[in-house]
Inverse folding.
């Protein structure tokens, strides 16, 4: 007896349909954002929303992740240009004090919103989330940044020492 055989496309559709309920986590390799000379470590959570469009446009998860990688990085670079470096790396963002969202959260929310619409329309993919894990200075810049930090702390220490000496003389 011969078993009925679904065509390859139908089998792929069934697999894509099965994967549509499963959220996928994709970690993008840390990459240098030339706009601000920073290394960004990003992750994306996605799932198949339209299995037919997914199969027709990207074919499989490898193709989907390649397309999402390009989409997210291009939006991230474009959006990053709207922020000052000090907004992104400060210890206590001004937004937290006056009720607004922090700049990093606003940055990733903007990237998510822009990519979400495009991913659904072109690839049948629902972007669940886009987030930054880490924001780093490139290796070649770290030593210069640390040297500036040390120099600033040394300057502050010298000022305190000078104030202490001055205070002792006044007594």
């Amino acid at each position: 007896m011969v078993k009925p055989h679904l065509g390859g496309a139908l089998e792929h559709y069934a697999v894509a349909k099965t994967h549509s309920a499963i959220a996928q986590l994709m970690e993008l390799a840390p990459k240098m954002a030339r706009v601000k000379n920073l290394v960004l470590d990003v992750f994306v959570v996605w799932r198949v929303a339209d299995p037919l469009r997914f199969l027709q446009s990207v074919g499989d998860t490898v193709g989907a992740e390649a397309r999402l990688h390009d989409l997210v990085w291009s939006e991230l670079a474009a959006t990053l240009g709207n922020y000052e470096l000090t907004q992104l790396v400060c210890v206590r963002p001004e937004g937290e004090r006056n009720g607004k969202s922090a700049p990093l959260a606003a940055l990733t929310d903007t990237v998510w919103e822009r990519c979400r619409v495009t991913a659904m329309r072109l690839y049948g993919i629902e972007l669940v989330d886009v987030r930054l894990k880490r924001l780093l200075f490139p290796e070649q810049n770290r030593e210069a940044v640390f040297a500036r930090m040390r120099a600033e702390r040394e300057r502050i220490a010298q000022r305190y020492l000078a104030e202490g000496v001055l205070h002792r003389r006044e007594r």
Observations:
- Residues 139-171 form one domain.
